[in-house]
Each structure stands twice: as C-alpha cells, then as structure tokens.
C-alpha cells in the first residue's frame, strides 16, 4: 500500500489528485476508486493501477 496526501478533490466532478509520499508524484484519483469520502489535506493509503491515461489511485481510504 502506498501513502500520500490529498492535494485536490472536486466532489462535484468526482476526481482529484493525491501526492504520493514516496515518489512525490501526483496520482489521479476518481470517485470510483474511493473506499470512503476524502477531502483536501487528508492522509490516505491507496493502491496504484495503470489506467488509460496513466496511473490511478484505487482502494483509497483515510489513515
């Protein structure tokens, strides 16, 4: 499991970005990959999968 901080999440549009604490890269997250609701600055853990346009965070939950 990876860990990071929610940099941005738009509830209306259903997507955002997580800043991965290990690589310091932004990872795309879609509402379909959430285990629970997240907001900006939440500390989260997640898995990374390859999507159509790059890597996506899935199984996202707060820690």
Automatic annotation (TrEMBL):
It holds the Pfam family CSD. The gene is cspC. SUPFAM superfamilies: Nucleic acid-binding proteins. One of its GO terms (molecular function) is DNA binding. It comes from the Bacteria. The keyword Amino-acid biosynthesis does not apply. One of its GO terms (cellular component) is cytosol. This is Cold-shock DNA-binding protein family. Keywords: Cytoplasm, DNA-binding. It is found in: Cytoplasm. Residues 1-62 form the CSD domain. PANTHER family: COLD SHOCK DOMAIN CONTAINING PROTEINS (PTHR11544). InterPro entries: Cold_shock_CspA, Cold_shock_domain, CSD, CSD_CS, CSP_DNA-bd, NA-bd_OB-fold.
């Amino acid at each position: 499991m990876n860990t990071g901080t929610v940099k941005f999440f738009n509830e209306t549009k259903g997507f955002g970005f997580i800043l991965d604490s290990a690589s310091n890269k932004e990872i795309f997250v879609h509402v379909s990959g959430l285990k629970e609701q997240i907001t900006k600055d939440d500390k989260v853990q997640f898995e990374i999968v390859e999507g159509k346009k790059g890597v996506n965070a899935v199984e996202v939950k707060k820690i």
